[in-house]
Specification:
The chain has one helix and seven strands. The chain is 5% helix and 42% strand. With 168 residues, it is mainly beta. It starts with 6 loop residues before the first strand and ends in a 40-residue tail after the last strand. The protein is globular. Strand 2 and strand 3 form a beta hairpin. The protein has a five-stranded mixed β-barrel with strand order 1-3-4-6-5.
């Protein structure tokens, strides 16, 4: 049987990213993202909001981008997979934690605090699953050919002669 392990999170960072480097030089970034759920209490009719926190880990170039561009309060879209790990706390109690291992990330919202164009292109959102690069200057090309003429408009279909025996 086929299975899917896919998570999509859209939320805000609760603190600045934590960046570490492995002995190989590869970057690891960890963030905490808050998501909210709003519902109405059935008994009182009062609006309630529940906040859930998610631990997300990034690796390699994506981790470097997170460390460079994200900060506390940043809005972010993340796609990834769930991974549960077992660990022993300081009191010797075995515990489990479920983290999101990020595979794609897109920064949402404006570019406040980034200064200049920050290598982000012309829009105010950046999506990453591969290293960013600046476009190379384009060589001068020949002028584009004139657009082809549009075909003549067809008359609207006449539905009055259709049967009414359509089963839906």
């Amino acid at each position: 049987m086929a299975s899917v392990n896919k998570v999509i999170i859209v939320g805000n960072l609760g603190r600045d990213p934590e960046i570490r480097y492995m002995p190989s030089g590869d970057a690891i970034a960890n963030i905490a993202v808050a998501t909210s759920y709003r519902s109405k209490d059935r008994n009182t009719g009062e609006q309630k909001e529940l906040t859930e926190w998610h631990r997300i880990s990034f690796f390699g170039r994506l981790a470097e981008i997170v460390g460079q561009y994200l900060k506390k309060g940043s809005s972010v879209y993340v796609e990834g997979r769930l991974q549960t790990r077992k660990y022993t706390d300081k009191d010797g109690v075995e515990k489990y934690a479920t983290d999101i291992i990020a595979e794609q990330m897109q920064m949402l919202g404006g570019r406040q605090g980034m200064g200049g164009d920050a290598g982000m292109g012309g829009d105010d959102m950046g999506g990453y699953d591969a290293p960013p690069s600046r476009p190379a200057p384009r060589p001068q090309a020949a002028p584009a050919p004139a657009p082809a003429p549009r075909p003549a408009a067809r008359p609207a279909p006449n539905f009055s002669d259709m049967d009414d025996d359509i089963p839906f």
